[in-house]
Write a structure and sequence with these properties.
Elements lengths: L2 H6 L28 H8 L7 E4 L2 E4 L5 H20 L3 E5 L4 E5 L2 E5 L3 E5 L19 E5 L5 H18 L3 E5 L7 E5 L5 E3 L6 E3 L7 E3 H6 L18 H78 L2
Length: about 325
């Protein structure tokens, strides 16, 4: 490579194998400052107290969201974590990890509030990566409405960058439902709304992942979602399986108990019938004996009468 080509080549993002010392942050925000990409990676990317993105040669400070908006995206992030436990098709990455977008009019380095990298992404997410060298499959931003430019940055600039850079899905979250947006990238490289069906968003990038839009604001405990048909396939399915096994065991035990009780009842009924038959036989025997005794008495009486009549005829 010639010196001029080397000078034009973008600097590699930092890796853990080649750590970059974190600089002492300057007083005040440096939002809007012009710096080279190399300076950004070296001096700003790994800052921990202020998160800067780099947009076509300028620093952009990540705006701060209010606590309730944080709760919205935190709830969804934990829901995704539950999803990956039962459907291990991808991994979550948090705010500290950025990625580089090659755009028609330049380069931007973005740090979404959290993102997803599928395991079949052409660029694998490596254990020691501190920046991602591919394009996220899903980017999620928590909208900050403290300043007008913060809203425009998430809903206009980043939306355009993510679409042009090839991010398949983009979610914008906020405490107010009317400021939430969900987009899916089309084959021609533009975002269209991911329309809820019966109030439920179903991801195209993560088959099987879905959530009820209203739940973003309600934020029910995840343990309460395991019996909800929207979430039952991936929220604590092992609990549901355990409960199904327990229910099956209880049902089988109940059936065995009913069968045992029925057998005992049949045995008792048979004994009762046998006892009744014995009683009937005894009664019949007693009646037969009584009849025989009566017949014998009647025969004896007739004989005595006949003897008395015979004596009378003989004059004795």
């Amino acid at each position: 490579m010639s010196p001029s080509a080397a000078a034009l080549a973008p600097p590699p993002p930092p890796t853990r194998s080649a750590p970059v010392a974190e600089p002492t942050p300057a007083l005040g925000s440096e939002d809007g400052r012009e710096v080279s990409e190399a300076v950004y990676w070296k001096d700003y990317y790994l800052l921990s107290d202020v998160h800067y993105e780099w947009n076509r040669g300028r620093l952009e400070e990540k705006p701060v969201s209010d606590y309730e908006t944080f709760q919205v995206y935190h709830w969804l992030m934990l829901l995704l974590d539950r999803f990956f436990e039962s459907h291990p098709i991808g991994a979550l990455v948090a705010l500290e990890m950025g990625f580089r977008l090659k755009l028609p009019d330049g380069v931007a380095i973005r740090k979404p509030d959290f993102g997803v990298v599928r395991h079949d992404n052409p660029q694998p997410l490596l254990p020691l990566d501190v920046s991602y060298h591919g394009v996220f499959d899903l980017c999620v931003e928590a909208l900050s409405d403290l300043e007008r430019r913060g809203i425009a940055r998430e809903t206009v600039q980043k939306k355009a960058d993510y679409a042009a850079g090839g991010v398949p899905e983009y979610f914008i979250l906020h405490r107010e439902p009317e400021l939430q947006s969900f987009f899916v990238r089309t084959a021609v490289g533009v975002y269209v709304p991911l329309v809820p069906i019966d109030g439920v968003i179903e991801s195209r990038v993560l088959p099987g992942f879905r959530f009820r839009v209203a739940d973003l604001c309600r934020r029910p405990p995840h343990t309460a979602l395991r019996d909800d048909p929207v979430y039952a396939d991936f929220v604590l399915p092992e609990w549901s399986a355990t409960e199904r096994r327990a229910a099956a065991l209880a049902e089988r035990a109940a059936a065995e108990r009913e069968a045992r009780e029925a057998a005992e009842q049949r045995t008792a009924s048979a004994a009762q019938r046998a006892a009744a038959e014995t009683q009937r036989a005894d009664a019949q025997a007693r009646r037969a004996e009584a009849e025989a005794q009566r017949a014998e008495a009647e025969a004896r009486q007739r004989l005595e009468l006949e003897l008395a009549a015979l004596r009378a005829r003989l004059g004795t």
